[in-house]
Amino acid sequence: xxxxxxxxxxxxxxxxxxxxxxxxxxxxxxxxxxxxxxxxxxxxxxxxxxxxxxxxxxxxxxxxxxxxxxxxxxxxxxxxxxxxxxxxxxxxxxxxxxxxxxxxxxxxxxxxxxxxxxxxxxxxxxxxxxxxxxxxxxxxxxxxxxxxxxxxxxxxxxxxxxxxxxxxxxxxxxxxxxxxxxxxxxxxxxxxxxxxxxxxxxxxxxxxxxxxxxxxxxxxxxxxxxxxxxxxxxxxxxxxxxxxxxxxxxxxxxxxxxxxxxxxxxxxxxxxxxxxxxxxxxxxxxxxxxxxxxxxxxxxxxxxxxxxxxxxxxxxxxxxxxxxxxxxxxxxxxxxxxxxxxxxxxxxxxxxxxxxxxxxxxxxxxxxxxxxxxxxxxxxxxxxxxxxxxxxxxxxxxxxxxxxxxxxxxxxxxxxxxxxxxxxxxxxxxxxxxxxxxxxxxxxxxxxxxxxxxxxxxxxxxxxxxxxxxxxxxxxxxxxxxxxxxxx
Length: 488
Fold this sequence. Notes:
Largest sheet: none
Distance between the termini: 37 Å
Structural class: mainly alpha
């Protein structure tokens, strides 16, 4: 039932978006404005609460609870586990925004800060760290922890509705549970389709830079079709082959690219920027987490922070479920530290190296990176790499990385959506994965035709709102289940 209702609703959305793209953009823009103006505080408070709660679980009395039987041990090595969860959790987005976001914040900072100033440069990294650091990974951690616990320790189906069983009891097996699972499935499709659309935009940007291939929707549709074929081939090979091998490859290429830019870029500047930005981020994490603009109505927080929280929430069911699937046998503390702390630090390093190199060229070398990123956000990375030694080769390497992240994210998503469609089956059949892979690609194409990044941003924020309520209930359910276990 979940499968048929979900795919029917998604197909209706696809048909409407294909036939009436301007109307879809108009409707989603109005809803986006309402949510960011009137409910932005709800996103900020909830996500901060999720972060605090996840750290409490790691370092409190529940840290030694094992996600499985007491004698279970992890199925995957720490490297493969981290590679898979990181590739599924960030992937395309990190490569897409690694240069572009700090440059945007430098040129268009929040809260009345002077653009293109020393203060806006410092603030650009603090907010990049905020948007890609502890908060988003805490969302993934709570969803993944709840699912891994009920799946491997309580032997329940790996479904979002199962995580609320400690709170709702048998109601999760009826209509209420079905509604929750349908919402999670649709949210996953839209969230992943948003990133696939962004991936297509940046692959197109890379191909345009390297080979002068036209940067337009026709090319982007062809890219999505080709990538779809690749990730469906990977998806049909299974978790231990396709996704695992691709994820390990992603991390190796990403680290090599990272090290190259660090060594051949402004190394000392990058090191200094990292420590200054990290200390500023940690010192200001609370005020930044709750930053709103009730007096001047600055739309910056809605355009950036609230969008990101909604985007991470829209990825929550997918990434959380995937992380749960590969985390059997780990303790709560080990899980939280591995899912929240390590990836967040890696993201901060990534933004410092790539964003820092871009701003160094902008501020000290007279290279107009800001203008290039403002003109076309998809070419920020390639514009920066072009000023380094072996620029063409490194840009080609970056394009390959985007493609492999692209394939891995879509591959992982079809795996998880297949699980949702088959009542939590940990190994969904290939037929269902192929169906959802095609639907994901069609959704990404429709969003591109309906207004590109704007339509994607709007749709993600709208669909994430109900899941915000579900994740609050999930936190209560986790605490109730853990407290009950400790009292026995």
